[in-house]
Amino acid sequence: MTVLRRLGSSAAGLFGLIVVGVILLTALVSLFWTPFDPRATDVTARWSPPGWPHLLGTDLTGRDILSLLMAGSRTTVLVAVGAGVVATLIGIALGALGALTARWVRETVAVLVDVLIAFPVLIIAMLISTVQGGSLWVVVWAVGIGFGVNVARVTRPELRRVQHSDFVIAGRASGLTPLQNLVQHLLPNIAPVFIVQMSWAMATAVLAEAGLSYLGFGASVVDPSWGILLADLQRYIQVHPLSVVWPGLAITITVLAFNLLGDALRDATDPTLRTGRRRVRQARPGPAPLPGVTA
């Protein structure tokens, strides 16, 4: 509750919370209801302008754009959450191996992380898609692996720092195994780090899914996706430019919300940042007194 209160006190955090909450609610509602069937076509209503009953208009085949966006939010949530979880698990596993094991294992993991981090997420997804075929799970695993390396690079030094703390040494002396020490002491103390990294992984996943689906490497054509919708509509941008705005705006706002939420989470969960800002405010000098006026 304290973290939520701190997020709510920040404009960026409040914006991120509201947008992410709306997307989650929309994805849940779309499981049971959308204004129209997202797959239903009506050639008599194609390219209808925004209005009633098609609030955001229709596309070339008469499908309701609002219903397509609502159904596509399910894909966005699935990819974002799945990639965030995969990235966190891979990052924690590699970070723990790179910080808490024998020296030769640590050095091997460090080299592996340096090699993997050189490959962009989209390239990894395209390589996997070439072998396995395009699907949402390819995007989830590609983003999870690609961003999991970033999580490992951030969590590894944090784990090495925390493992020399008194409570970790006391836990080791009391008979805790390395795994028990990791779960009970180390991970809770570096939780803010990988929580923030997970939010950034979700933003990357949303953008990667849209880009890969746009290029034909992501969701299949039968799955509702903002990237596929954007690819379908952009061919008619010169004739019906407003139709392209809606999926592009949805992708942009969602990625922005996840990024801002990640920044706000970092500020809300990192005590060193709060302490530093408090000291800056306390040390900031007040306004200079006017000439001839004494305090």
From TrEMBL:
**Cited Pfam families:** BPD_transp_1
One GO cellular component term of this record is:
plasma membrane
Any idea where this protein resides? Cell membrane
Provide the ABC transmembrane type-1 domain boundaries.
Answer: 73-262
Q: Which residues cross the membrane?
A: 12-33, 77-97, 109-128, 134-152, 200-222, 242-261
Topology of the protein relative to the lipid bilayer: Multi-pass membrane protein
**What is the recorded name of this protein?**
Nickel transport system permease protein NikC
